[in-house]
Amino acid sequence: MSGLTVVVGYGNAALDVLRHLPLCDDVVVLDQDPIALTGAIANGARVVRGDGRDLCELRHAGVQFAGKVVVAVPDDQDGMQITLAARSLNRSAVVVAAVREPANQDLFARLGADEVFVHRCAKEQLP
Predict the structure, then answer these.
(1) Among the residues of 12-119, which ranges form H helices?
(2) Whole-prediction pTM
(3) Where is the RCK N-terminal domain positioned along the sequence (predicted)?
(4) Which of 28, 29, 79, 87 could form an S-S bond across to 112 if both were Cys, CB 3.0 to 4.6 Å?
């Protein structure tokens, strides 16, 4: 397995997932938000600015070589598309997905996620 971890989406969900995973030394973050990318750089990651739904951008980030791919985008529909694309580019990577809706856990697993974490925003967790 490769020592590369590719993280697609670098917000609160990604940070929550990354706290629970052993990471490799080589982390690449793919995100469209320059502020998120600045945070990733500050945490020692290499970055690629782009859309994780785009196969070319996923390849540019190195998904096809990754040992682990973390999909942590704000929208479950986008996350499903990215999970499926990541799995198509790399059959052997461990794909970890952060989902917003618990009902989507099984669907993410059927699309190729090996591990699925349910992530809710802080506002959603308040009574």
Answers:
(1) 12-19, 34-42, 55-61, 76-89, 105-110
(2) 0.89
(3) 2-118
(4) 87
